[in-house]
Amino acid sequence: MPTFLVTPRMSPELSARVEASVTGQKRGSASRLGPRATMGLRVVALATIAAALVWLVLTKRQADQETETLRAALIERWQQARAPLSASQLELPRRLLALVKPELQRYSGDLVTARARAPQLARLLAEPTVYVRGPLATLGQAAGLEQSARESVKDAFLLCLLDPPEKRSEKALLGRVKSAYAAGDRMQRATAQVTRLGDAFVGLPFLDAGWREQVVRAKHHQELERLESSFARAPIQAARAALQARQLLFVVDEPGAASAITELDGEKPHDVRVGLVDLSTGQLLLRLRRRVDPSGLSDATRAEYARGVDDCGLALDVRDAATES
Predict the structure, then answer these.
(1) Number of C-beta neighbours around residue 245 at 10 A
(2) Sign, Cα dihedral of 38, 43, 49, 51
(3) Nearest-CA neighbor of 204 among 241, 229, 249?
(4) Rounded distance, CA 126 to CA 216, Å?
(5) What's CA 276's distance to the chain center, in Å?
(6) Tell me, what's the pLDDT at 94?
(7) Is residue 259 scored above 70 in pLDDT?
(8) Residues 6 or more apart from 300 whose CB is under 8 A from it?
(9) Which own/partner pairs from 107-113 qualify as long-range (CB within 8 Å, at least 24 positions apart)?
């Protein structure tokens, strides 16, 4: 487009530069492509944009399908894990407080029902059992019961109750205690039917309907992958075994005197309560209270195994009571 800034007296080069400056075009920037080539470039550009859009749509659709496939798989795994459990079994951790709390109040005296007397006791202890142990001060509260359940382990009391030593000598008790502490094959075989109550508390959130709701509400694939990973690590099998147990075995440690000598492992003279409850009926099958005292043990045993030997002796007291009743 001509401009009044260009005069006939200007050289052609200067005139061209002035025109380019005014019109916004750089010198030599004029397209040298023909109309067909320009149209071809436009078609290619539009096709590239369209292909990119199609790829994005297909990629998102595939990602959505993978997300929904993972969601459906997680829900199916949850349903399969939960299927064998009844509503009552799923409520077990919440029901236990009502079963245990009366036994934490004023002691009502020893009780050994006909089902818990020898030789029936051996058959009774072979039934699927859930186990918990804790201090008197905390077991009577929901939070305390859960904490004690999570901290409870299969201990020397449990091993000696299910697989007692032939003699009550310190040497024989100590042998069982060492087996319990090692948690080896003997411990695993003897206590195979016993599950920790803590496993029920750890695994139950993954069997609860609330976990399924988390899966349903998850919006992102990464969130579902996180849920899948946590479900894979959860002790589902152990939790299910605990929830399906037929009886509850509990041990309650009463506080010892503040002035009593405490051993290196925390043991000191104190009273201990033992109870066995039929979970299907809520019937208390056995109730005993015995005093444990490590002061009569040798120095070497007391220094390292005081609690374990006391626990093993307590288990033999339970078996003796069942025999004498």
Answers:
(1) 21
(2) negative
(3) 241
(4) 41
(5) 26
(6) 86
(7) yes
(8) none
(9) 107/273, 107/289, 108/287, 109/287, 110/287, 110/288, 110/289, 110/321, 111/284, 111/286, 111/287, 111/288, 112/286, 112/287, 112/288, 112/321, 112/322, 112/325, 113/283, 113/284, 113/285, 113/286
pLDDT tens sequence across 157-176? 999 999 999 999 999 999 99
Reference 182, options 305, 314, 315, 318; nearest CA is 305
Provide mean pLDDT across the span 179-197: 96
Q: Compute φ and ψ for 134, nearest 5 degrees.
A: -170, 175
Residue (of 133, 111, 103) closest to 287 by Cα position: 111
**Percent with pLDDT over 90 in the chain:** 71
For residue 119, is the peptide bond before it cis, meaning its omega torsion is within 30 degrees of 0?
Answer: yes
Q: How far apart are CA 118 and CA 124, in angstroms?
A: 10
- Any idea what the Cα angle at residue 258 is, between residues 140 and 263, rounded to 5°? 95
Show the tokens assigned to 293. 């005292």
As a whole number of angstroms, the distance between CA 164 and CA 172 comes to 9
User: What's the pLDDT at 30?
Assistant: 47
pTM exceeding the 0.85 threshold for the entire prediction: no
* CA separation for the pair 316, 310 (Å, rounded): 10
Residues 141 and 234: their CA atoms lie apart, in Å, by: 25
